[in-house]
Structures are given as structure tokens and as C-alpha cells.
Amino acid sequence: MSASPTLTTLPAARGTPRTTSFAARFVRHRGAVAGAVVLLLIALLAASAGWLYPINPLRIVGAPEIWPFESWRYPLGTDSMGRDIAALIAHGARATLLIGLVAAMAATLIGVSIGAAAAWSGGWVDEVLMRITELFQIIPNVVFVLTVVSVLGPHIEAITLAVGLVSWPPIARLTRAEFLSFKEREFVQASRAVGMSPLRIVAAEILPNALPPVIVMSSLVVAGAILYESVVSFLGLGDPNIASWGRLVGEGRSLIRSSWYICAVPGVAIMLAVLSLNLVGDGLNDALNPKLQKR
Fold first, then answer.
1. How far apart are CA 225 and CA 107, in angstroms?
2. Best label site of 67, 100, 111, 193, fewest CB within 10 Å?
3. How many whole angstroms separate alpha carbon 116 and alpha carbon 83?
4. Any idea what DSSP says for residue 140?
5. Do 62 and 76 touch, CB atoms closer than 8 A?
6. How many CB atoms are located within 10 Å of the residue 183 CB?
7. Residue 169 in contact with residue 136, Cβ under 8 Å?
8. How far apart are CA 78 and CA 88, in angstroms?
């Protein structure tokens, strides 16, 4: 009877040091901290875009091809049609982050579900689900995204769906590998012995232990989703009713020799967003990977 209080107090006692240890390991990764700061600034810019630039960013507001810092009203200049590039960047951050986050969430949900089902069920279920996963992996991702957007139309929903559909296979394979490594562990066998249902074992015992590498992979999926959206918009298949960084790069490529800044400004924004997400992913990997905790 005296062992019961000890068992109930151990998790609480170890909770705070683990959290502190994770934060300390993440902060120790200077690149991850820098990436998180840049990502936070992009998120703040997206959140305040409506306040900073309340009018439609696609409206013509000035003379075409005003260079950056040439006019205080247009700090980043204007494009070939006279639209404010700063407004396009701010409002484009909304679409970029929205597509990236929603597509990553959808890919994570699909990938974790398929990977967990394949590893837990085994047998023919595992074979079928893994062959489906391999089928999606052998299709060129950009071609698949462009095909889906061409069929469903140039809408933000279609782009998000297409990006989510090409991004889940790596997550599924990673989740399957993690589940297979935990499936026969002692704590899972003990859960079966006490009569826990398979769904409860998966949700309460295996999934929390398998999530850390999946979280790292999901952060990289966001970066990939941003690149896919930029490619689609660059090729003119993006939603024409929203501001997009990739679309601005595509529209400015014909003026690359005379007004290269039209391509350079959104290009730098895309680079910073993707780079910051990759740095945050590296930091999460160092903080969550138990093999790297003593490095």
C-alpha cells in the first residue's frame, strides 16, 4: 500500500525537469532560436497585414516599377502594375502560412493514421497500406500537385489539398517504423495483460512515444508546402484572388533585367520562411531526440 503514493508522485516530479530540459536543449541550438525568431516575425506580419495595409493588396496604388526606398509610401517599391510590394508581401504571408500549416496538419493526420494502422495490424493490411504509400512516393510531387490544381481549379483549397496529398508518405513510413519499435516493448505487453483495448494502447501508450520524430517531420512538411505553393503560383495556377509570394515572383520574371527587385523581394521572403522552418526542425530534432540529448 505504501508504493501507491510513490507511483502517483513520480510523473509529477519529473514533469518540470523534462520540460525545462527540452527548452534548454532547444535554446542551446542557436540556429533554431534564430529560425524561431524569424518565423515569429513572419507570423506577426501576417497577423497585422489587415491593420498595416487595410486596402486590397491587389489594387493599383501608384506608378509602376518604383524601386525600393525610392518613395516612403512604398518602402519595398511597386511592381509592374503599380501595386505595393510591401502590401503583397504582408498579405501573401497569410496565404503562405495558412497553406503550409493546414497542409502539414492534413499530411500529419493522414500519415500518422496510415502508419499506425499498418504497423499495428500487420499482415495484408500492412502490405496494402505500404504499397499505397509507395505509389504516392513514386509519382513526381510537383506533377501531382499541378495535376490536382488543374483538375480542381486554381483555388487555395485545391492547392492545400494537393500539397497535403503529396506530403503524407514520409510521415506514414516514419510513424510505421516508430510503432514497430514500440509495439513489442514491455509497457505495451503490460497494457495488453491488464486488458486495455487496442485503440487505448495505441492512443495512450504508443502514440505519445512515437510523436517526437513525427513533430520534427511535420515542421519540414510546412517548409515543403510553402515551396509547393510558390511553384504553383509561379506557374500561374495559384488563386488569382489572393496575394502570393510565388505569384509575385512569376509576374516579375519578365522584368528580371530591368526591375529585378520584383522577383528578389518575394524570393527572399520565401527563402527566409523555408530556412527558418528548417532551422526550427533541426532544433526540435536535437531537443526531442533522446540519442542527441547528451551531445
1. 10
2. 193
3. 48
4. -
5. no
6. 15
7. yes
8. 10
Could you give the CA distance from residue 107 to residue 215 in angstroms, rounded to a whole number?
12
> Beta-carbon neighbour count of residue 73 at 10 Å?
11
Nearest Cα to Cα of residue 213 among 135, 112, 126, 97: 112
Cell of 245: 509570394
Cell of residue 28, nine digits:
542551446
Euclidean distance between CA atoms 201 and 196, whole angstroms: 6
- Which has more confidence, 19 or 95? 95
| Each residue's pLDDT tens digit, 195-237 | 777 788 877 778 888 888 888 888 888 988 899 988 998 888 8
Q: How far is CA 286 from the centre of its chain?
A: 18
71 strand-pairing partners: 74
- The rounded Cα 291 to chain-centroid distance in angstroms is 24
Within 10 Å of residue 50's Cβ, how many Cβ atoms? 12
d(CA 205, CA 172): 18
- Identify which of 191, 202, 59 has the alpha carbon closest to the alpha carbon of residue 121: 202
Q: Which three cell numbers, joined as nine digits, stand for 143? A: 506533377
- Diameter of the chain by CA atoms? 82
DSSP-assigned beta bridge partners for residue 78: 84
Q: Which residues pair with 74 in a beta bridge?
A: 71
Closest CA to 183 of 160, 207, 152, 219: 207
